[in-house]
TrEMBL record:
Transmembrane segments: none
Originating species: Geomonas silvestris
Domain of life: Bacteria
Organism lineage: Bacteria, Pseudomonadati, Thermodesulfobacteriota, Desulfuromonadia, Geobacterales
SUPFAM superfamilies: Citrate synthase (SSF48256)
Gene coding for it: gltA
Designated name of the protein: citrate synthase (unknown stereospecificity)
Keywords of this entry: Transferase
Length: 437
């Protein structure tokens, strides 16, 4: 058993009595109530999911295992020659809640090197798809294609399946998916945009650095990849991709089925696809400017044109957050400290939208949160480094999100969470309860 798996076993065993006690002794304690607005309005704010991987405070933003984004970056061991941690150290932290030692990080890196070999048939399947398929379709297909590798599914079918040990097989699948997904993403990038010029894995590089290497990027991009995958990893459990993954896995569908479903949710424009939409919006705006300088006035007009056409301003608003997303801030700070990037015209335009959009959205009066979310800033960084194919941006999100979703379902099995099955009601019932007050 690997060091990480052993640590996780210790953590899961220590945690199990807490869940048993809560269920047996306090199962009937009420922690929320549901109104008709929430029932019709996407179950907003209803407290009915449990996770210890991350928590989203509406004012403060995300905390991973109790740490804010700056605290997380500060605490974790850094990649060699970098001020950013490796994704591998973050994976250890998300799974166990403990900051790993450099040796523990090395062990995860070594484990990922073994796990990251993608079966050749995955590439055959991807090459058989129409080349103009959306890269999120390709990513989802790649994950589904690998389902036959599932160790959890093998354990289920072995006749020896039991609830206590099931998490160990989820851990195996989860680790394989996390190790392989950047390699698959790089293959898709090279297949679609670089004439199928494929680059072999560099066994000496950590996950983020190897992704940069495989897509033909510069050394500077290694930190972009590390930062990007960590920032996009988890956003508590109610968001569409995490919730879908949890829901599908709750039926004991294996992690491959579950994460492919999560990715399909991430591909929606109100969720992860918004980062592609942001770049599309900006490019349309620049086209309309026809060479003129962007100003506060013409940005304001473009925002109103979007709103008056009944569309949402991509990259703004959030179902839970009520302040600027700290993931936006972390990326903005990266831009501000990177020579060249802070002077980049696209960065300046995004900064001007940041100055303008909250006021316009507030005046428009619909959204509960006029502030930017993670997607408003992420595309600019990719664009600057030459990843200009913006339909690929959600794939990058999907690589990062695998960390959170896979850590979550490993714990779901460790703690034996039930199949998810909320209750639905009819409109007649709602009207009856409405009449009764
Ligand atoms: N532009 C225009 N209208 C908006 C926006 C926006 N950015 N955000 C919310 N609204 C509207 C929303 O469509 C709704 O209108 P209606 O009553 O006509 O249905 C109204 O404001 C109230 O919505 P909220 O309660 O503020 O937001 P909700 O929780 O329903 O939705 C989002 C959250 C994120 C789906 C929404 O803010 C949105 O569509 N934003 C733009 C897309 C986006 O950036 N998504 C990425 C989210 C982060 N991620 O990566 O997943
Ligand atoms: C996410 O990262 O999943 C998004 O911000 C959406 C959400 O939290 O609902």
């Amino acid at each position: 058993m690997s060091q990480l798996k052993e640590k996780l076993q210790e953590k899961i065993q220590a945690h199990r009595p807490r869940i048993t006690r809560l269920t047996k002794e306090f199962g009937s304690v009420v922690i929320d109530k549901v109104d008709i607005g929430q029932c019709i309005g996407g179950a907003r704010d209803i407290r009915c999911l449990v996770t210890d991987i991350s928590y989203l405070d509406p004012q403060e933003g995300i905390r991973f295992r109790g740490k804010t984004i700056p605290e997380t970056f500060e605490a974790l061991p850094k990649a060699a020659g970098s001020e950013y941690p490796t994704v591998e150290s973050f994976w250890y932290f998300l799974l166990t809640g403990e900051v790993p030692t450099p040796d523990q990080v090395k062990a995860v890196e070594a484990e990922f090197k073994v796990r990251q070999q993608v079966p050749e048939y995955v590439y055959t399947a991807l090459r058989a798809l129409p080349r103009d398929s959306h890269p999120m379709v390709m990513l989802s297909v790649a994950i589904m294609t690998m389902q036959k590798e599932s160790k959890f599914c093998g354990f289920y079918n072995s006749g020896k399946f039991n609830k206590m040990d099931a998490w160990e097989y989820v851990y195996e699948d989860a680790s394989d998916i996390v190790a392989r997904i950047p390699v698959v993403a790089a293959f898709i990038y090279n297949l679609k945009y670089r004439g199928d010029k494929q680059v072999a894995i560099d066994q000496n590089l950590d996950m983020g650095a190897n992704f940069a290497h495989m897509i033909g990027q510069s050394d500077q991009y290694k930190d972009v990849a590390r930062m990007y995958f960590i920032l996009h990893s988890d956003h508590e459990s109610g968001n569409v991709s995490a919730h879908t993954t949890h829901l599908v896995h709750s039926a004991l569908s294996d992690p491959y089925y579950a994460y492919a479903a999560g990715l399909n949710g991430l591909a929606g424009p109100l969720h992860g696809l918004a980062n592609q939409e942001v770049l599309g919006w900006i490019m349309d705006f620049q086209k309309k400017l026809n060479g003129a300088e962007p100003t506060k006035e013409n940005v304001t007009k473009a925002l109103w044109d979007t709103l008056n056409a009944g569309q949402v301003v991509p990259g703004y608003g959030h179902a839970v957050l009520r302040k600027t997303d700290p993931r936006y801030t972390a990326q903005r700070e990266f831009c501000l400290k990177t020579p060249g990037l802070k002077e980049d015209p696209l960065f300046k335009l995004v900064a001007m939208i940041f100055e303008t959009a909250p006021g316009v959205l507030t005046e428009h009066g619909k959204t509960k949160n006029p502030w930017p979310n993670v997607d408003a800033q992420s595309g600019v960084i990719q664009w600057y480094y030459g990843v200009k194919e913006w339909d690929f941006y959600t794939v990058l999100f999907g690589v990062g999100r695998a960390l959170g979703c896979m850590a979550n379902i490993t714990w779901d099995r460790g703690l034996g969470y039930a199949i998810e099955r909320p209750k639905s009601v009819t409109t007649d019932m709602l009207e009856k309860w409405a009449a009764e007050g």
